[in-house]
Task: inverse folding
């Protein structure tokens, strides 16, 4: 049900203006799309790689197609969506920089959330055990994980600079699900947040770097 969304998705939904045209990339079983359509009156649709996810969305009557963020975003016209969303997915893409650049091309604004590899529990477990850490968000064994490009909040901020994006808003999400808005993501946010949510737009004054 829409009101059973986890806190992170609810905060993402709060960033979406009523009546927006939305593309949710890596939409899973469509919980966020369903919420946006019912609560925000959004023209929301999605792309999902897994067949099971697509089937679940179609069974709910949601407009979702099977597709790959790395390969299929180039087929969308520039500025075709008010909001493009990539929730807990960028770290599983093969080319995160290209994917983010494409999202900024097709969406007037872009919302990205991701697990923060700079989280203190991740650092502590790696330091104390010498093994790849596992947390609530990073729950796979290293040899089975779909996460191939893990990053910290600091790394992501640097990526936004490389693609010429402006950070309009940033949220730090704790492992308990509490959300804190941060003006300028810094050291303590990188240490304390299990995940992060960024609202971005293209900064015309800062061209993308090669």
Result:
């Amino acid at each position: 049900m829409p009101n059973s969304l986890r806190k992170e998705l609810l905060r993402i939904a709060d960033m979406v203006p009523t009546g927006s045209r939305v593309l949710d990339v890596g939409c899973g079983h469509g919980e966020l799309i369903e919420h946006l359509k019912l609560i925000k009156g959004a023209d929301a649709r999605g792309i999902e790689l897994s067949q099971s996810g697509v089937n679940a969305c179609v069974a709910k009557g949601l407009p979702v197609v099977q597709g790959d963020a790395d390969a299929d975003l180039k087929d969308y016209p520039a500025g075709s969506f008010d909001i493009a969303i990539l929730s807990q997915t960028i770290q599983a893409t093969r080319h995160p920089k290209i994917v983010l650049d494409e999202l900024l091309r097709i969406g007037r604004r872009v919302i990205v959330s991701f697990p923060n590899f700079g989280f203190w529990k991740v650092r502590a477990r790696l330091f104390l055990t010498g093994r790849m850490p596992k947390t609530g968000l990073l729950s796979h064994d290293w040899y089975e994980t779909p996460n191939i490009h893990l990053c910290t909040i600091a790394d992501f901020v640097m990526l936004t600079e490389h693609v010429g994006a402006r950070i309009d808003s940033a949220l730090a999400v704790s492992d308990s699900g509490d959300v804190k808005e941060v003006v300028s993501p810094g050291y303590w946010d990188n240490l304390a947040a299990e995940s992060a949510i960024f609202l971005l737009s293209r900064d015309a004054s800062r061209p993308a770097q090669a």
Remarks:
- The first strand starts at residue 21 and ends at 25.
- The mean pLDDT is 90.
- DSSP finds eight helices and eight strands in the chain.
